[in-house]
Design a protein that fits this description.
Elements (H helix, E strand, L loop, with lengths): L17 H6 L5 H13 L1 H9 L10 E4 L7 E4 L2 E2 L1 H10 L7 E6 L5 E5 H17 L7 E5 L4 H13 L2 E4 L6 H11 L3 E5 L2 E3 L2 E3 L1 H9 L7 E5 L13 E3 H6 L10 E2 L3 E7 L7 E6 L1 H14 L7 E4 L6 H13 L3 E5 L10 H9 L3 E4 L1 H10 L2 H4 L8 E4 L6 H11 L6 E3 L34 E4 L12 E5 L9 E2 L3 H8 L11 E5 L5 E6 L4 E3 L2 E3 L1 H9 L4 E11 L3 E10 L7 H15 L7 E4 L13 H8 L15 H10 L1
Parallel strand pairs: 4-17, 6-7, 6-8, 7-14, 8-11, 11-12, 16-17, 16-18, 18-19, 19-20, 29-30
Antiparallel strand pairs: 1-2, 3-13, 4-5, 9-10, 14-15, 15-23, 21-22, 22-24, 24-25, 26-27, 28-29
The structure holds 5'-O-[(S)-ethoxy(hydroxy)phosphoryl]adenosine (WTA).
């Protein structure tokens, strides 16, 4: 298979309005083209100039060292601190008293922090961590609801040079434990709970389960949010409000080397355990800063809202580091989009006069399903720019977003990137790019993207293949925590000399990139990547299950739904109760996100002669499609007929 068949045809295209273009940070095609050419032909000149826009404690000496490829070294010789880039730099300007974070809790409570207040809060937090013995280079796990202290926790770690490892608050105790152990974390920051759909998520309880017996965790710092009762381990646990009560609101930022690790963030792969993606300080900040500024076209008076959770990379890069480095006013919301009513997001847009909105296709599809009446009763005239991220957006959802949310006046930036890339890689520039619905369009500055066949040969227009990237870029991952070889094997071995993101793509006759989804088995549910292997392991850990294979089937709401084929032990009987038990089991083992939509009992699973499960076949069965694959390598041909009968 050297190409991926492309079936999507789209002739519509929307140019930005003259009014938008005239005010845009990048406002002419010539300027965009000139910058792009320079970024490719002379990356050191281009990125050196952007790098110098950040505040350095010691200026860098060299822009890029690629001699130890595929591990890049950017801005060597320089020293800086991420929390100072995001906060301190604004305190000498008029932004000192500008709102940095405007937060709303799910129950409707509100808090806001100016840049000066946020900086004082972060310093107190950092001092409290230091007082507990957290030191530069230590790993700190963060497992929190979407409250301002979550953003402050990241920045407080950064201020003292501790490496944060945020684990999304929906993950189970076992997943949290695996990540704490893999990273060798010595402290955990959490909260008593968080609000989600009117209920308290008992986060501290999960942390207690996750850390039981892990002696290396000497501190669990707990922010009070929901006031539910929590168990307490004396000596280890400390309330945040007690810890910061006497802490000084001042602390000089730790001077970090450009290539010092800023954070780890775990991402699921197609095989094996989650990978701790490692990002470093300077390149990551330069990348998130420039993409935020130019793709979200941020102006001083914008009110910017990215609806992601900080537990995912989108929240790291486009709630915390990018927008704060730009000095933006960032809206943060704790809860669910339909709490207490399906128009909550639009009520927030109206109330806070939000001008730039960045959300996910899965959310957009949910809003479409809930009905326009929940949108149209709110005044969305403050919006001027919309964005999407996380999975391919289908053209009809894009059109709905443009029409119903954007009032046909807001450009949409469909941004393609990954945890590994750190920052946006493909996206329209909102003031210049004509955008077809559902298209991520063009490579960002410095991104040398192409579409190749299985052998790494560049494909021509409209030929679907593998997306690849030829040159290093500042915010690229520097490795996988504790596994250098896996870093090389996963990203740099398929096409020598090129980064392989694992997505399929096609480039059209205008040079626009269309992303065609993952080329491997990773599931993408509601914009989140989940590994089939992790879900299968969870299923097989249930006593009734012998074997499991998990595949995606298309789903209108979540993009993809999880369909699990399971073989149960003799003596076990398929039943609706068992289906519920298995779904519940997966939820507790690895988290609700991974809960299968369908469980289908199978007598046997289709395998190759070497014993590998043929997931592509299962995908066809799950979607009730004709089987397109060559079945001649199948171990037992009869298995297909039996699976079909059982699932109809
Ligand atoms: C997918 C999220 C199509 C893609 C920032 C990628 C997209 C994976 C888009 C990374 C998009 C993300 N169009 N697909 N605009 N954005 N993806 O690491 O498959 O959670 O490889 O990072 O999501 O997911 P991750």
């Amino acid at each position: 298979m050297s190409e991926i068949e492309s079936i999507l045809k789209e002739a519509r295209s929307f140019a930005p309005s003259e009014e938008f273009r005239a005010r845009a940070i990048v406002s002419t095609e010539e300027a965009a083209e000139r910058s792009y050419r320079e970024s490719i032909d002379d990356p050191e000149a281009f990125w050196g100039r952007v790098g110098r826009e950040l505040p350095w404690l010691t200026p860098f000496e060299r822009v890029l060292d690629w001699s130890a490829a595929p591990v890049a070294r950017w801005f060597e010789g320089g020293r800086l601190n991420a929390s100072a880039v995001c906060l301190d730099r604004h305190l000498e300007t008029e932004r000192r008293d500008k709102v940095a974070i405007r937060w709303e809790g799910e129950p409707g409570d509100e808090r806001s922090f100016t840049y000066a207040e946020a900086q004082a809060e972060v310093c107190r937090f950092a001092n409290a961590l230091l007082a507990r013995g957290v030191a530069k280079g230590d790993r700190v796990a963060i497992y929190m609801p979407m409250i301002p202290e979550l953003a402050f926790a990241l920045l407080a770690c950064a201020r003292i040079g501790a490496i944060h490892s945020v684990v999304f608050g929906g993950f189970s105790a076992q997943s949290l434990r695996d990540r704490i152990e893999d990273g060798g974390c010595t402290a955990v920051i959490t909260a008593d709970g968080g609000w989600r759909r009117g209920k308290v998520l008992p986060l501290k309880d999960v942390v207690d389960k996750a850390t039981a017996g892990i002696a290396s965790v000497h501190t669990v710092m707990v922010v009070r949010r929901t006031e539910n009762e929590v168990a307490w381990t004396a000596g280890r646990d400390v309330w945040y409000h007690d810890a910061v009560a006497d802490a000084s609101p001042e602390l000089a930022p730790e001077p970090m080397e450009s290539e010092d690790t800023l954070f780890l963030l775990y991402t699921s792969g197609s095989t094996g355990k989650p990978k701790g993606i490692r990002h470093t300080t300077a390149g990551y900040l330069v990348g998130t800063y420039l993409t935020t500024k130019t793709i979200f076209d941020l102006k001083e008076d914008d009110v910017y809202w990215c609806t992601a959770d900080i537990g995912w990379v989108t929240g790291h890069s486009y709630i915390v580091y990018g927008p704060l480095a730009c000095g933006a006013t960032v809206v943060m919301y704790e809860g669910a989009p339909d709490q207490p009513h399906p128009g909550r997001f639009w009520e927030l847009v109206q109330k806070h006069r939000i001008s730039v909105l960045y959300t996910a296709p899965t959310a957009i599809r949910a809003f479409m399903r809930w009905g326009d009446e929940h949108v149209t009763k709110f005044d969305l005239s403050s919006l001027r720019l919309l964005g999407t991220v996380g999975e391919p957006i289908n053209p009809e959802a894009w059109m709905w977003y443009r029409r119903t949310i954007g009032g046909e006046r807001c450009p949409i930036v469909d941004t393609w990137w990954q945890t590994e890339t750190g920052a946006i890689m493909l996206s329209p520039l909102p003031g210049v790019t004509s955008t077809p619905p559902g298209c991520a369009t063009r490579p960002f500055f410095g991104v040398d993207a192409l579409v190749v066949d299985e052998e790494g040969n560049e494909l021509g227009p409209n030929q679907g293949g593998f997306l690849a990237i030829r040159k290093p870029w500042p915010s690229m991952l520097r490795g996988i925590w504790g596994d250098d070889q896996r870093f090389v094997d996963t990203y740099w071995s398929k096409f020598p000399g090129m980064y392989f993101p694992g997505d399929g793509a096609r480039r059209d006759e205008h040079g626009n990139f269309w992303i065609m989804g993952r080329v491997d088995d990773v599931l993408n549910v509601s914009g989140h990547r989940l590994s089939t292997m992790e879900i299968e392991s969870a299923l097989v850990s249930h006593p009734a299950v012998v074997e499991a294979a998990v595949v995606a089937r298309p789903d209108d709401l979540t993009g993809e739904a999880i369909c699990a084929f399971v073989t149960i032990g003799s003596g076990q009987k398929p039943s609706p109760e068992l289906i519920e038990a298995l779904k519940g089991h997966v939820s507790t083992e690895i988290g609700k996100l991974a809960r299968p939509s369908d469980i289908r009992f199978a007598e046997g699973l289709p395998k190759t002669r070497s014993g590998k499960i043929m997931r592509r076949l299962l995908r066809d069965i799950a979607a009730r499609r004709e089987i397109a694959d060559d079945t001649s390598t199948l171990e037992d041909l009869g298995v297909i007929a039996r699976l079909r009968d059982e699932s109809s």
